[in-house]
Specification:
The protein contains two helices and seven strands. With 136 residues, it is an alpha+beta fold. A four-stranded mixed β-sheet has the order 4-1-6-5, with helices on both faces. The protein has a three-stranded antiparallel β-sheet with strand order 3-2-7, with no helix packed on it.
Length: 136
């Protein structure tokens, strides 16, 4: 039986319609691709608390669970596991963004997001974000 990995992540948005993406470490899986920050759900966690914990660990920022707005859920089968990817949007947090585990962070205009290589599961989410927020 294949393992299932549940992930919570956030598209952090700013008023100029840019989204934060983070470049994965060069020495890990899917090296150097860009992603929405977040990570794996732990046993006993709800997906909102997972996302908040991961953003604190990865970016050094604090987000109240109530500030996360559900955006979409995507399922994707990778070679060795099945992923359930919960993406939230958020425009309010506390603290200074710091690339704790990533190579770099970058604010990207929504319309340019598809120019950044991202994991396969992120592709449909990029398209939906552009459709939902690209013209606002």
């Amino acid at each position: 039986m294949r393992s299932q990995v549940i992930v919570g992540a956030a598209a952090l948005c700013e008023s100029s319609h840019r989204v934060l993406v983070a470049q994965r470490p060069s020495d890990g899986s899917m090296p150097d691709v860009w992603e929405f920050p977040g990570g794996k759900q732990r046993i006993g966690e709800n997906i909102r608390s997972t996302t908040c914990r991961e953003l604190l660990e990865e970016l050094g920022i604090r987000i109240g669970e109530h500030k996360l707005r559900p955006f979409d859920v995507v399922e994707h089968s990778y070679e060795t596991f099945d992923l359930v990817f919960h993406l939230f949007t958020c425009s309010e947090w506390e603290g200074h963004l710091t690339p704790v585990v990533h190579n770099r962070l970058r604010w990207v205009p929504l319309r340019q997001l598809s120019l950044y290589p991202m994991p396969p599961a992120d592709g449909p989410l990029v398209e939906k974000l552009v459709l939902a927020f690209g013209d606002t």
